Amino acid sequence: MWRTLLLTGTLLFFTACANHQTLKVTADAETDVIMHEGDVADDPAVWIHPSDPYKSLIIGTHKKGGGLEVYNLEGKRLQTLEDGKFNNVDLRYGMKIGDKRVDIVAASNRSDDTLALYGVDAQKRRLYPIAAKSIPTLAKSYGLCMYYDAKNANYYVFVNSKEGAFVQMQLFANGDKVDAKIVRRFEVGSQTEGCVVDDEEQALYIGEEDVAIWRYDAAFDAPNLRTSIDTTTKTGHLVSDVEGLALYLRDNGEGYLIASSQGNNRYTLYDRKSGNYLGAFEIADGVIDGTNDTDGIEVVASPIGKIYPYGFMVIQDGHDEPSKMQNFKILRIEKVFNALGLDY
Ligand code: CA
Ligand code: CA
Ligand code: CA
Ligand code: CA
Ligand code: CA
What we know:
Blueprint: E1 2-7, E2 10-17, E3 20-26, E4 29-30, E5 41-47, E6 57-62, E7 67-71, E8 77-81, E9 86-97, E10 100-109, E11 114-121, E12 126-129, E13 141-149, E14 154-161, E15 165-174, E16 177-187, E17 192-198, E18 203-208, E19 212-217, E20 226-231, E21 242-249, E22 255-261, E23 266-271, E24 277-284, E25 297-300, E26 312-317, E27 327-331, H1 334-340
Parallel strand pairs: 3-24
Antiparallel strand pairs: 1-2, 2-3, 4-27, 5-6, 6-7, 7-8, 9-10, 10-11, 11-12, 13-14, 14-15, 15-16, 17-18, 18-19, 19-20, 21-22, 22-23, 23-24, 25-26, 26-27
Bound molecules: calcium ion (CA) (5 copies).
One calcium ion binds at residues 193, 209, 241, 243.
């Protein structure tokens, strides 16, 4: 059974398969491909320019040795940082370093299990290295996400391993550079990767790839208790691997958690406050090809003028067409909210 409807000038359609209705949307833009064959792209982050949102940057990892790639909002590559096998990337704004405020980009470097750190030069729209030294993380390092604790003005990076071990590292200024120390360790149980922190809610969401999405307390001195958001069991909505996790944060404190359910090429949505499952969508072929085998995702609610007035989502695509390489797709996320009847 097929149903079509026209909404905000975009063709959206649902397809019924078994008992599940899955929304299909089409991408609105895509980045340049990574110039390396195989499974090379993994995880994106988005840096919002402080005064001109059109000058914001999409940052993607190249996990086979290319480090980071930096794109403009049209997806054109502006910078390549070939600094190692970078798996996941995240960022936070305005860390005080000396007498300056610096936006910090962190990435997990699997070449030598270290933490890669960069500052963002807003004027030049370029990343520059800012790590005080080689900063070890943990063996078989894999996923990464950042956390800003506004109450104490502390910046943290969570790094996890292929064996499900987590470290929470606190960043600190060292001259005009940044260093980090481990302040918490815990075990999730099996392979983890995707994670994201809701700073306001002090909530750390973790994807245990074959099992579930968990919510932990992000505070460094919190007990390692957790609640399940969704699972890969028959009653859950995820098909392993659980990959990227991202948050759409609204100004009123509400919003959505979005996950990449890699095994069925879908993205699942949850209410930010309750954790309740709200629906799923796929990115189908349109003018721009659809996505599958997605690793990392990112979502921002920041308005980007007329092109993305309600923010956008960035999605790693395992098979770009017609290039047969990999890249990142960009989606006007309100198409999903409109189709699912969700506020934004
Ligand atoms: Ca990321
Ligand atoms: Ca993975
Ligand atoms: Ca991945
Ligand atoms: Ca594709
Ligand atoms: Ca394409």
